[in-house]
Write a structure and sequence with these properties.
The complex is a heterodimer of chains A (about 220) and B (about 425). By secondary structure, chain A is an alpha/beta fold. Chain A is about 35% helix and about 25% strand. Chain A is built from 7 helices and 9 strands. In chain A, the strands form 2 sheets. Chain A has a 6-stranded mixed β-sheet, sandwiched between helices. A 3-stranded antiparallel β-sheet of chain A has the order 2-1-4, with helices on one face. Classes of the chains: A alpha/beta (about 220), B alpha+beta (about 425). The structure holds adenosine-5'-triphosphate and magnesium ion. Adenosine-5'-triphosphate binds next to strand 1, strand 2 and helix 1 of chain A.
Chain lengths: ~220, ~425
């Protein structure tokens, strides 16, 4: 069998806030295989975002190990290729138009060539923004911004897509279509998906459902 | 004319291979779809104003300095030999000896002193220079400074007056002036009665230096030797040296062969104090004006610091996209560098532009304020001199670019220290 896309074992994280020790994650185990979609639900403050940050290699766990396709290298250079992230608040760069935001991911890997431009354009088309490539984020609606962010997250053909409440800032109908898009595009592009959401209906769409409670991750 | 799409492709060719940090820096300076980038324009203008003022002031200071140096060399030669408390008795021997120094192009002996000059009952006490008419023009371009009469008219019974002296005495070409030398006073003490020498005014000179033009007269060396009872002796010899030779080195070389009571000194050495003051003034101006650039740089720093705070979340996102802290830092550093380079280029253009129209500007100003005459009287120039040494230009450019780049360092450091996780939490 091939290596899992993601393997996290015994991840724990503790924050010190003043005198108090806040155990945010306590021995999280998570394995994600290729093509899998995992949803994580849990009350606010249970440590979902913290887990995603650890998985993304943006933060270091206090204990535990993390492997991306069997390798412990979770450095910035590998991150640019290996995973894409989508956030609740979109985080588009306001100075760049939609196409520029999608291409920013390619820029991280170095040169932007004709093939990269073609891919960015086709991704924008795929998320339904073919005509909006030269619009600035300020000229786009929330749903449209999240579509650009999804195209950007998929630009470098990542193996893993991390989405932290991607529909949290959107109305129900828009959120529905964004979730639809996220699931189908991730499947088309061959990326595994870890989706953090508060919405039970959205969580149910994943192939595997998990909950986070007080820093402990468990299958539903 | 290239078409719009061709231009777009060209822009793409330049932007596409750029490192992302540089690309993003340019995009932050010139955001897509924004009609006018105010932050960039104002920052560039701040640096440009400083550079412009530096270029203009240092050039004008340099121009004055050069004029003054030219005056000194034109009146004293490159190197001057003087007796130390004595006169030079064997002039022709000394001149022959100087011929063996290869750097020396020409030499002219002189005698100097002070006399009482009278015209129309108006007295003056000018310094007097006795010049060797056969040799003087090989060393000093005296003829260039004669504004009335002629150098050829000068003989042992005539005198050339400096312009302001002639004006204050009311003397013209052909007027007669009386001259009393200190020797006359000596003889008076011994109860000999001697009449003053009557001299004809043969010419008027003007060098363009307040002091030289107000109270100097030129006579022949022969007459000066008579007036001062020097016999065949002189007070010193002025030398012209090859343009490529260093006056200090030549002076040292000549000194090695001179008797102990004679000494050669370069014009720089003789005017050390004055040159020091000139340099000091220029340094002070530079030091003060550089602060304009420093202040401009402070405003760039504060704007960029605000940008770092404002962009905290995007900086976090860049981390999520795979940016390294050093690349984030480079993005902000580059903005400082760009503002520095662009500001310097604009400042150079404005500065040299201002220098090009300086005389028209002054003319306009004096005409508007009716101060044309005052300007001429106090500054003795109608054309403002300007000269910018390459070393000064390089220094100005280096300071402007260096200071503005430094302005980006603090924001860059702050940005690079942002923890992407904290930045992303900053919702
Ligand atoms: N730098 C920090 N210092 C102290 N405590 C922190 C820090 N970062 C996070 N926490 C705490 O860790 C806990 C988990 O936060 P996290 O953002 O992972 O929760 P979450 O499950 O994503 O919640 P939500 O659903 O509201 O997004 C919270 O109680 C939070 O206050
Ligand atoms: Mg969260």
């Amino acid at each position: 069998m091939s290596e899992p896309i993601l393997q996290a074992t015994g991840l724990s994280k503790t924050y010190l806030s003043g005198e108090r020790r806040l155990e945010v994650l306590r021995g999280v185990e998570l394995t994600v295989s290729a093509g899998e979609t995992v949803s994580i639900r849990g009350e606010s403050g249970s440590g979902k975002s913290t887990l995603l940050h650890l998985i993304a290699g943006l933060d270091k766990p206090d204990t535990g190990t993390l492997a991306w396709e069997g390798s412990a290298d979770t450095g910035a250079a590998r991150r640019a290729r290996f995973l894409g992230m989508v956030f609740q608040s979109f985080y588009l760069i306001p100075e760049l138009d939609a196409l520029g935001n999608v291409l920013m991911a390619a820029r991280m890997l170095g040169k932007v060539d004709a093939a990269a431009r073609a891919r960015a354009a086709s991704l924008l088309e795929r998320v339904g923004l073919a005509e909006r490539g030269h619009h600035l984020p300020a000229q786009l609606s929330g749903g449209e911004r999240q579509r650009v962010a999804i195209a950007r997250a998929l630009m470098n053909s990542p193996r893993l897509l991390l989405a932290d409440e991607p529909t949290g800032n959107l109305d129900e109908k828009t959120g529905e279509s964004i979730l639809e898009l996220l699931l189908s595009v991730a499947a088309e592009q061959g990326a595994a998906l870890v989706l953090v959401t508060h919405n039970p209906a959205h969580a149910a769409r994943a192939s595997r459902r998990m909950t986070m409670h007080a820093g402990v991750l468990s299958d539903v | 004319m290239p078409s719009v799409s061709e231009l777009g492709a060209l822009r793409g060719e330049i932007l596409n291979p750029m490192p992302w940090s540089l690309y993003l820096a340019l995009k932050q300076l010139f955001p897509s779809g924004k009609r006018f980038p105010f932050f960039t324009a104002i920052s560039v203008l701040g640096v440009a104003l400083g550079v412009m003022l530096l270029i203009v002031s240092i050039s004008v200071m340099g121009g004055f300095g050069r004029e003054i140096r030219r005056m000194i060399i034109d009146t004293q030669g490159d190197v001057q030999i003087r007796g130390q408390g004595t006169t030079i008795n064997d002039v022709s021997g000394l001149l022959d000896a100087l011929k063996t120094v290869p750097e020396v192009v020409a030499a002219t002996p002189f005698a100097e002193g002070v006399v009482l000059l009278e015209h129309d009952r108006r007295p003056a006490f000018p310094a007097v220079q006795g010049v060797d008419l056969q040799r003087i023009e090989n060393v000093i371009p005296l003829r260039d400074y004669i504004v009335a009469g002629s150098l050829d008219e000068l003989d042992d019974d005539s005198v050339i007056l400096s312009s302001q002296l002639a004006r204050s005495l009311g003397a013209r070409i052909g007027s007669t002036v009386q001259i009393y030398s200190p020797l006359l006073l000596e003889k008076l003490k011994q109860d000999e009665v001697l009449l003053p020498r009557d001299l004809r005014v043969a010419g008027v000179f003007e060098i363009g230096h307040q002091q030289l033009d107000s109270s100097v007269v030129l006579v022949t060396l022969r007459l000066m030797q008579d007036l001062y009872g020097l016999g065949d002796s002189v007070h010193g010899v002025n030398l012209r040296i090859k343009p490529s030779a260093d006056p200090d080195l030549v002076a040292r070389k000549i000194n090695a062969g001179l008797p102990f009571n004679l000494r050669a000194g370069s014009w720089m050495e003789a005017n050390q104090d004055f040159l020091f003051v000139l340099q000091l003034e220029k340094n002070m101006i530079f030091f003060l004006l550089v602060f304009i650039i420093v202040v401009a740089a402070f405003s760039v720093t504060s704007s960029l610091l605000i940008a770092v705070v404002r962009k905290t979340r995007e900086i976090g996102l860049l981390g999520a996209l795979g940016a390294r802290p050093s690349q984030v830092a480079a993005c902000f550093c580059f903005q400082g560098l760009f503002i520095g380079v662009a500001g310097t280029l604009l400042g150079l253009a404005l500065g040299f532009g201002a220098l090009a129209v300086r005389n028209d500007a002054i003319e306009l100003f004096t005409r508007l304020t009716g101060s044309e005459e005052a300007l001429l009287r106090f500054y003795q120039f109608s054309n403002l001199p300007a000269y910018l040494a390459t070393s000064d230009l390089v220094l100005i450019i280096a300071c402007a670019v260096g200071i503005s780049t430094a302005a980006g360092l603090l924001p860059a450091w702050r940005a690079s220290r942002l923890n992407p996780v904290e930045a992303l939490r900053n919702e």
